[in-house]
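Backbone shapes recur. Consider a single case.
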Amino acid sequence: MEIVNKRIIITGAASGFGMYLTDYLKDKADKLYLIDINGDGLKRFSGSDKVISFVCDLTDYEATTKVVKEIYSREPETNILINNAGIIHSELLINFFNREDRRHSKQNWDKMLNVNLTSVFNCTVNVVDNMIRNKVKGIIINISSISANGNSGQSVYSAAKAGVNALTVAWSRELAMFGIRTAGIAPGFFDTTSTHSALKENIVKKIISEIPSKRLGQLEELAKGVEFLIDNEYFNGKILEIDGGLVLSNG
């Protein structure tokens, strides 16, 4: 399944990896449909007839349903969804340095589950419904994280990404009969703004020292992973880990 002549939906395209991936794919695919809550970030791609942007809060089920319906009314043959939208979040379960309330914020728990997990469901259930209605074969690609294995200090982020991994397996089994594959990518630690904003620099340095490759990943390496999943039609129901050899342990 080559990228040429494919119509691709990319969520979270206004910044970070989503923005990079859009630049990487826009000259390879036939059409890109971008979805993000950040309308200003999406303006970067205005003026291209191959890239169409939609401002939408993907945690809102009805709003997501409306946007996906609009995409398929424009292009019924849209056959690739890349669930990239998400936010890295670090927070201890019990923070002894917080004198007011040392417990993990319930508000942050709910918000991060919505952004990193519920949004994946909202977008996928609507895209797949339209793919099946239009008899379109294709692939759902979920951007997960190595933190799905359980990363200290990232309770809700780890839980959400573990959920994304489970959905990847479940959907691959449900949708194979329709010619729809589901696969995931679990990045390790990449040299991005979100990584440096979510983690203190001394933590980043410690992580680099533990990575066998002794460096953070580059976004081009991650984009090539996405391209591999699209091209290889026998890859299904699995998570491709791109982490420089780093293995996070629950122990």
Observations:
- Residues 7-242 form a domain with the Rossmann fold fold (CATH 3.40.50.720).
- The longest strand covers residues 180-187.
- Helices lie at 16-25, 39-42, 61-74, 106-133, 155-175, 193-198, 201-210, 219-231.
- The chain has one domain: 7-242.
